[in-house]
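Build the 3D complex.
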Amino acid sequence: MRIDLNEIQHWIKQDSCILDLGCGDGTLLKFLIDTKQVKGYGLEIDAEQINLCIDKGLNVIEQNLDRGLGNFADNSFDTVLMTQALQTLHFPHKVLEEMLRVGKECIVTFPNFGHWKARYYLATRGRMPVSDLLPYEWYNTPNIHFCTFNDFEVLCREMKIKVIHREVVNEVSGQFLKDAMPNLFGETAIYHLSK
Amino acid sequence: MPNSLPTSSVGFLHSVGIVTPQIIHFSEPLLLACGRTLHNYQLVYETYGALNANHSNAVLICHALSGHHHAAGFHSANDKRPGWWDAYIGPGKPIDTNKFFVVALNNIGGCHGSTGPASINPETGKAWGPDFPKLRVRDWVATQARLADALGINTWAAVIGGSLGGMQAMRWALEYPTRVRHCVVIASALKLSAQNIAFNETARQAIMSDPNFKEGRYLELNTLPRDGLAVARMIGHITYLSDFAMGEKFGRDLRKGSFDLGSDAPVEFQIESYLRHQGDSFANSFDANSYLLITKALDYFDLAREYGDDAVAAFKLAQAKFLVISFTTDWRFAPERSHEIVNALVGANKAVTYAEIESQFGHDAFLLPDQRYQQVFARYLNGVSESCV
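Done.
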C-alpha cells in the first residue's frame, strides 16, 4: 500500500463513518473496512477505477469533486479523506471548505512540489518537473494545482483551518532530512484537519 | 441448443435459446391500492437459468411501460428478434443465467398475457376495458411477491428494473425489505417530474381523442383506437431518444420526394417514416387501456409520499444494497433523478454504488448494448452471485 495510506489508518477511529474523495481503486477504503470496520462511501470519476471498487464490493459513487459536495449533509461523516487528489481539482480551496463542512475531521494528502528534485529539475533544465511520482508532461497532466507544504500551511491559516496532525512521508530516500527540512526533502504531506 | 436457431441474431452464442412462457393463476383475492379487489388474475412469466438448492440465486426483472415477460431468448427458431433485454440477460451476460435463476413477468394491467383491461371480466363476461381497476406500482410488487411465493423464492438475490421497472425495484426494497438482497435501479426516479407527467398526458389525450376509442369500450365494439395509440407511442418514442441519436440515425435524410426547384412531389423525412412505423407496430401489439393505466401508475408513483415526502426516511426501511445507474443524455429520466435516489440512500446510510454512463442514446440507452454499462452491471452482479450461498 502507498506509504501515505499506511500512515492515515492511525487517525481513523474504529467503526467510524468515512467519505473517501477520489477513492481510486478503493484500496484504502477496503483496508479501513477490513481493519477498522468503518462504513462509508468512495467518490470517483474514472470508469476503470469505479469498476475496481465494484469488484471489491465497495460503495462507490460516480461524482465529480469539482461540482462540490452539496449532496452531503453537514457533519454527516466522521472523517472525509482525500488522498493525492487535491492537485487535480479546479477549486482545491472550495473542496477543502466542503470537506470540513461535511466531515467532523478531514485527512488530506498531496505531493510536495517544493521537493528538492522538482526545484532542481526546474532550476537546471528550465522545464516543468517530470519524475516517477509525477510522470506527466505539463500539457497532459491531471495535476493542475500544485502546491508546496508551505503553500498549504498558508492556505490553512487563511481559511482558519485547524491542523490536528501533520506528517511528511517519503517513499524511498531522505527519511532523516525530511524531518529537518520537510518543504525541501519531503515527498508527500499528510494533514489531519478540522474546523 | 438446436442448430436451427437463428444464428444471425447478435450474440446468439450467449442466448438463453428458446424459451416458453408460463401462466400461473391466482384465486386469492388481491386488495389493490385503489381500494378495489381483484378476485382472480393470472400472470404470464418466463424463467431463465436454474434455481439453486437453497433458492438463493433468484433475480426478478421488472419491466417498464412497454415491456413484458419476454425479456430474453427466442420463442421459436423462426423468431426474428430476441426478448427486450436480451443484451443483458443470458449465459455470460451481466445478468448471467449460468449463475442466476431469472424471473421475468408481464405485470397485471398489461396486455401480453397477464390479466389486464383486455382480459375478460368474469363478472360481466366482457372485456374489462376502462373498468379495470386503476393500479399503482405497489400492486405490481404485491403480485410479484405472490409469484415469488409460488416459485419457492423467499428472498431475491436481486430485484432489477429500468425506468418504471426501477420504481418497482425500489418499492420492493421498502415493502419487503427482508426479501430483497440487492436492488438495481436503472434510469429511474423517485417520482416523475411535471414535464414527464405532461408527456404522458399528451400521449393519453392522443388515445382518448381517437374516434375509435369509444370511452375505452373499443373491444366490445370490435374496433381499436390504432391512430391514437400510434401517436401516443410516437410522442413517447421521441422522449426516449436523444437529439443527438435521432440526428445521427436520421438527420434530415429524405425517404421520398425532393426539394429540387420545380418539384412538388410530397417530401417525407426518414424520421417521419420511422416514427410512424414505430407507432403503427406498437398500435398493433399494445392495448390502449393498458397504456392509459400504466402511464397513470407511472405518474402516481412517488416513493416517499407515505413517508412524509422524505426519501431518506423511506429508504431507512430498506435492507437491500443498491446499484443505481443513469445515462448522460437521458432527459426523460435524467441523471439528476438518479442523484436524488443516491443522495437519499446515502442520507439513510444505505449501501449504494452509482455509475453515470456516458451514452448518446437517451433513455433507450438502458436497453442497448454499451461496454461500460455492461461492465458495471456484470461486475456488480458478479459480487451478488458470490453471495448466493
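The mean pLDDT of chain A is 91.
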